[in-house]
Amino acid sequence: MFLQSLMNHKKANGLFDKLMHGLTGSILQSGESECRIDLGETRGVGIRVDGLNKFYSDHHVLKDIRLEILAGETFCIIGPSGTGKSVLLKHIVKLEIPDSGEIYIDDHPMFNPQHGDIAKDYRYSMVFQSSALFNSLTVGENVGLWLREKRICKEARIREIIREKLALVGLEGTEDLRTDELSGGMKKRVAIARSLAMNPDLILYDEPTAELDPVTTDELANTILKLKETTKNTTVIVTHDLNFALYISDRIAMMHDGKIIEIGTPLEIKNSQNPIVKGFIYTTTKGIKGE
User: Is 291 within a domain?
Assistant: First the structure.
């Protein structure tokens, strides 16, 4: 049932399988333990982007991107639509291949075939802008999908994990709800719980506040901040929502026209003298800039 639902889901198109189901054999463990892999403590991974370039035909989307994200950091990439934020995110999870440049995870290159695939050394997951929940499944079935499909744990332990992860995002007791009974904010939190089920070392969010009202956005921000207290993973968030980024980030990078134009703490970004950064802050906090 789960596999059929996954294959029929039009938005997945292979992405969900790659991000949520890409468990490599080297971390599998034999034996009669409750789980075949260690779903204990997470570890943050460091990310270094070195001279990344990406073209779509003649369109130069990413222009010599250089960026370092520290292990365990909550890092936001901000900027208006069409600046290459989501394209950069897709490169970090190898959904896109650069035309030049490299991304290093814990100093290991991702795209150099001579060094092999390092995905076996860490677990990562992604929360999609659309949440990408399966309408044919309950909340609990969505959260436990990866665990059941890969037969990671025994059923009793899977049910415990589902309850634990839903509790982390403030959705206790919702296991039997259908996805069409959920609000937009609840769907986002179920998607986060599903990503957390595999205890990722790296979790990525693509425009998590899209289509959410201010109150729900604030609830989501507090959920992500609460998770930071209980996990050690690295969190990378792409968003055009400046207030959201300022509230939850350790550091922020701003993209403009395919380039990283400034990196700093929330306070440093707010006090930036870069005219492009200042203009973005003005228009997103006070409306359209006047003369």
Answer: no
